[in-house]
Each structure stands twice: as C-alpha cells, then as structure tokens.
C-alpha cells in the first residue's frame, strides 16, 4: 500500500469515527456554530464542516477527534500515528489552479500566497473537469513532501477571479493565522507592528491608555491619523473597534507588542480594585474581574497589565476571588492564566495587522465599486 492509499484508508476511518454516536452532540454543535440558520445544503460546505470537526475542532474534553482516535486505536503503526498528527496542520484557502499533470494539481493560495502541489485520494480522474485558471475553495493536509485534498471542494470558473480575490482578502483579515503560514508575511507584519507601536507610544506616552468610553472613537481616530501622517502601510481598518458597551465607563486601549490594538472595557474599574483590594467585596468589582478571568475574548495581557503595578495587591485580590488564602500572584499567577486562558498559550500570538501584497492591493483598488 503506497502512502496515498494508506492516507485514504486512514482518513475514511477517521471521518467514520468523527461521525459516530459518541460525538453526535458536539458535531451538531459544530454545525450550529458554522451554520447558525441551519441552511447548509451544499455538499462541499457540509463536508468541510465535518472535516474541520475531525481534524481541528477542540472537544469539550480539550482533545481533538484525532487525539481520541489515536487513544482508541493503539494498534496503529508509528507511520500512521505520525500521519494523523500531521493532519492537524490544515491549509485552508482559495486556490488558483496554476498547473496540472498526471499526479497532482499545482495550486496558488490567494490567502497566504504560497504554492501547493496537491493530490486527491480519489485519483486525478476525480479532478478531470478542473483546468488551469480555475479556482478551488478547499482544505489541504500534509502528505509526504506534498499535500492531499481533504474534504470536498468547491470549483469556480476562471472568470470568478474578481470575486475570489475579494473573498481571499476578507478571509485574510478575518483569519490572520491563515495568512501567516507564509513566514515572509509574518515577518513583514511584525515589522509593521513594531513601527505602529512606536507611533502609539509617541502619541499616548505608554503602550496603553485608559479613557472614558465615550472617548474611544476619537482616541482611535487620532491614532489612525498619526499612522497616516507617517505613511504607515497596513494600518488596521478604522472601523475595527466593536460597539461600545453601554454600561462600561472606561476602556483601556492597549497596543500589545505581539498582536496590536486590543480594547479592555471597564479597565478603570479594575485598576481601582487592584489599588484597593478591599473592593473585591463589592459585587460589581468581583463580577468584572471574574469576567476578565473567564472570558475567552480577553487576553492574558489585560490581567498582566492590572497585576503588574502591585503584585502583592494582586495576590490579595485573587486570593479573595478564588477563596485561596495562600494564593501568591508571583508564584501562582502564570499557572492561573494558563488554566483560564489556555487557547492563548496553545499557539504563538499573531499580529492583527495583515500585510497586503502588491497584486492583492492592485486588485482591490481596481475592482468595481
């Protein structure tokens, strides 16, 4: 059995395992999150949801389906185990077909601007209708020195080029991690981020500023203008900030050196708490801190900013919040963050500034309004 045959058989077993009753509830939930209106009818879309669930979805236990499959199939060979684990490294994108031979397609990913040589586990006969210049929306997984098409694909004609470039730009802004598979783009983004951070600190005197919530838009506008004055390319879109919560009195605008602009609402309230730990007895302070700790949308950086000025006060505050008399922020703080903010530690933080190539920028400028 060659590698492709082995991969095809293994993938079939993995998908059957993912579709088994033991995961039915979590798979239903995955479909609801991907298709909240329950309107998935396209076979390729449904196949991609199942594929993501089988390869990447984080189960309630913290594992992936691949992890569970490996545990329940200890008889797999080392090669099969390694192949399965490699499939966690999925490439998603919108691909232009640049070439085709008897064994594989040569695909250019409009999202990360890298070239992939991809094969189908059903053979090239399954791709006989695909010609150079067409576009594919699909997922790829590693296979030896190349890649294997994973799940069904959506095929679009060459004259859909404008639509595909626009969609690729939107995907890149929404999911920067897909763009940063390209290490050159990641390096460029980090250089841009460092320059933008200099502008922010020059403007506000520090890497974060706490302001009344009604000043948020004007403060961000001032930053965007400062970036434009220095002709910084790749500036974040001016409408990137979320709607202002009506009950938040303050907001911290933080320029994280690794990711870029983050907003932390009610930050001023928590600054009061860490300056005066006795306030933890008040419900509003306690619930706000608990929300910061438990929310998956608030970075560990926010809590580090709060605890940094006075670690002793931080020990008292968290000791009372967690009802742990001997809690020490210097000793236990990092493990606490890793427990409640696990996803931030699973992968390296990435910039939110996404550099746009000359080709993509030219297309976006020239597309019809």
TrEMBL record:
Q: Specify the superkingdom.
A: Bacteria
**What is the protein name given in its UniProt record?**
Uncharacterized protein
Q: What is the lineage of its organism?
A: Bacteria, Bacillati, Actinomycetota, Actinomycetes, Streptosporangiales
